[in-house]
Design goal:
10 helices; 241 residues; 6-stranded parallel beta sheet; elongated; DNA polymerase, domain 1; alpha/beta; Rossmann fold
Length: 241
């Protein structure tokens, strides 16, 4: 893990942040909603599986679908429509009424963005950075949901520009979304650094756009990538910026 030996190694003026898993705690917020759905739809009886099985199946299927979405293999509508049908089928509950499954998926989308949990030190580090840099979000998440997440978690107030893949017409790791962002904020690549948890979408995406990166790796996963900086806790950003 490389941490800068002194601050402001490069004259950054703008910081791009990923949202889900980097600032907004997707895992915790999603789990809360899934448990609410499990109880609301009495899935122990109707589906015959445990709440832990439901949460695990969601993560497995959701990760697969988001990987396909990020690589342009499916669109947002397909992701939303297929997700809960595939999850329930993997749990042997494909017999459930399709209208109920669709309603479940719609409620997940309606309830999840309203959750307020953030990654530890998120507010602390954003308050620290806000006085020195212009802060921006770069996200592949659905635009309507991302704005709701930012507002419900009280994160919106820190950011000057919200750059979504839908608005940019390009998804990370394609450089187009970063180029769109640079144009929106009137900055050059050397003035920016990208902070994110996804090695491919966030880090390789920034590399593709010739932007420095801070890889947020809380589980300290091993990898072979050459990254500008790597951290396991958001508080470590203070050692770099």
């Amino acid at each position: 893990m490389e941490i800068a030996p002194y601050k402001n190694l490069r004259p950054y003026r703008h910081i791009f942040f990923d949202l889900d898993h980097t600032l907004w705690d997707y895992e915790v917020n999603s789990r809360e909603v899934l448990l609410e759905l499990y109880t609301h739809y009495d899935l122990k009886i109707l589906g015959g599986f445990t709440d832990k099985m439901f949460v695990r199946a969601f993560k497995d299927i959701n990760d697969q679908l988001w990987d396909q979405y990020n690589h342009g293999k499916i669109d947002s509508n397909s992701l939303r429509d297929k997700r809960f049908m595939l999850i329930l089928a993997s749990l042997g509950a494909s017999h459930l009424d399709r209208k109920l499954v669709k309603e479940m998926g719609n409620n997940y989308l309606a309830w999840c963005p309203g959750k307020k949990n953030v990654i530890p030190h998120a507010h602390e580090i954003l308050r620290y950075l806000q006085g020195h840099y212009q802060l921006h979000i770069v996200t592949n998440g659905f635009e309507d949901m991302q704005y709701t997440k930012l507002n419900s978690s009280n994160l919106y107030r820190y950011f000057d520009c919200i750059i979504t893949s839908e608005k940019a017409g390009s998804k990370k790791p394609h450089p187009g979304i970063f180029e769109f962002g640079l144009e929106q904020i009137g900055a050059t690549t050397t003035e920016c650094v990208m902070i994110g948890d996804n090695l491919e979408a966030d880090i390789k995406g920034a590399q593709n756009a010739n932007i420095d990166q801070i890889y947020f790796n809380p589980l300290q996963k091993t990898h072979q990538e050459e990254i500008t900086y790597e951290i396991s806790c958001l508080s470590q950003i203070k050692e770099i910026l």
